[in-house]
Amino acid sequence: MEFNTIQFKNFIKQPAEGFDEHTQGRSVAQLDAFEAKIGFALPNNYRKIMQQQNGGSIRYSQIHGVEKFSFAGGFSQIRPDLEYYIYQFNAYILATYSDEELLEAKKTLKPFYPERLILISGLDGHGALCLDYGYRSETISKNPAVVIIDDDPYITEDDATKSFLSFAEIMRFDSFDTFLQNLELDTEHQLEVFIGIVSQTNYETTVQAIAKHFAIALKSYENDDRHGHYNFAIWHSGHLPLYLDDETLKLHAQNNNSEYTGILAWAEEEGRTRNIYSIFSPNQHRSGMYLYPDNPEVNLVIEVHKTWFAMQTPLEGLMAQLQQIAEISNVIRLE
C-alpha cells in the first residue's frame, strides 16, 4: 500500500502466524468509527498504515539522531471493543493516579487536556507515543503533532514546563508525517545487509545452488522458531565471500588513520577474500506471510552480517556473482 506523502518499502512486519480478525487491516468504516469515538480525525498516513495491518512491529523503529531510543513497540492495535483498551492519555494517567489527582493537575497545569493525547503506541510499557490534538493549548488542533511521553523522566529545570505528574514530554514532531520522516531502519537492519533473491526454482533448490556456486558449507535448521518471531520450515547459515578491492582497502585506511601500504600488505598476505557469516531464509513464513510483503517476487532472503570494512563495493561484487547463477533471475537490496 502506498502512503500519500511518505513512501516506505516493507514498512510493517507481517505476523508470522498469519492474519486474524484482530491483526488484519482496519476497514474504512472501522477507522471512521474510531474517529467518532475519540472525536478527532486521524492523520491520513496513520489511517493507511492501519488499513494495511492493525498495528504491529515496524522495520523503521529508530529515530534519526537520537541515541538509545527505539520505537520498539510498533503501533498498537485499534481495539476499542476491549474492556481494558486505553486510547486517551488521561486514562493512562488514571492507571497510576486518582480522578482527584488528575483534576488537581488540570487546575495546576492549565491549560492541560490529556484527553487530547491519543495513544498510538505503548512503546516499551514505560512511555507512550501519542497524537497531540492540543493537550497544552486552549484550542484544539486539527492537524495533530506527535509527542513521546516518558513515565520516569529525568527533567532539568529548563524542561520543567514539559513535565506533569510523574510524566514528561521528551520528544515532539510537528506532524505524523514528520515523525515518519525521522524514522530509520531498526537495529537489526543496521547490523546486517539484506539481499533479495528472485529465482526460477524453489527456496531449497536455490540456496543449494548458491552453496555449490561459492563452494560453501551450509548449516540447516529445521524448526519453527527463528529469532523468536520467524516461522520457517527450514533455514540455513553459512559464510559468503566478499572481495576486498583496492578502493575498499583505501577507504578502510582513511577511516582508521592507517597507512594504506600497510593495509594493502596485510590483504596480500592474508588474502583479499573475507568469508562473512550469512543467514539464508525463505521470504515467506509457513503461514504464507512475507518477511518483505512489498517484494513478494523474492523467494530467498540473505542476511549478510556487517563487518569491519566498508561493504558497498564488496557487496556489489557478491550480488553480481549471485546474478550469474543459472537458477537466479534477479538480485536486489532489501530495505
Can you give a write-up of this model?
The protein is α+β, with helices and mostly antiparallel strands and 335 residues long. The chain has two domains: 62-180, no CATH class; 187-334. 27% of the residues lie in helices and 22% in strands. The protein contains ten helices and 13 strands. It has helices at 28-38, 44-52, 89-93, 99-109, 176-181, 187-191, 203-214, 246-255, 260-270, 312-323, and strands at 62-63, 117-121, 127-132, 145-150, 163-164, 167-173, 183-184, 192-199, 219-221, 235-243, 273-282, 300-305, 328-334. The strands form three sheets. Strands 9-10-11-12-8-13 form a six-stranded antiparallel beta sheet. The protein has a five-stranded antiparallel beta sheet with strand order 2-3-4-6-5. The protein is elongated. The two termini are 16 Å apart. The mean pLDDT is 88.
List the helices and strands and how they pair.
Blueprint (H helix, E strand, L loop, with lengths): L27 H11 L5 H9 L9 E2 L25 H5 L5 H11 L7 E5 L5 E6 L12 E6 L12 E2 L2 E7 L2 H6 L1 E2 L2 H5 E8 L3 H12 L4 E3 L13 E9 L2 H10 L4 H11 L2 E10 L17 E6 L6 H12 L4 E7 L1
Antiparallel strand pairs: 1-7, 2-3, 3-4, 4-6, 5-6, 8-12, 8-13, 9-10, 10-11, 11-12
Helix pairs in contact: 8-9
In short:
The chain has helices at residues 28-38, 44-52, 89-93, 99-109, 176-181, 187-191, 203-214, 246-255, 260-270, 312-323, and strands at 62-63, 117-121, 127-132, 145-150, 163-164, 167-173, 183-184, 192-199, 219-221, 235-243, 273-282, 300-305, 328-334. With 335 residues, the protein is of the alpha+beta class.
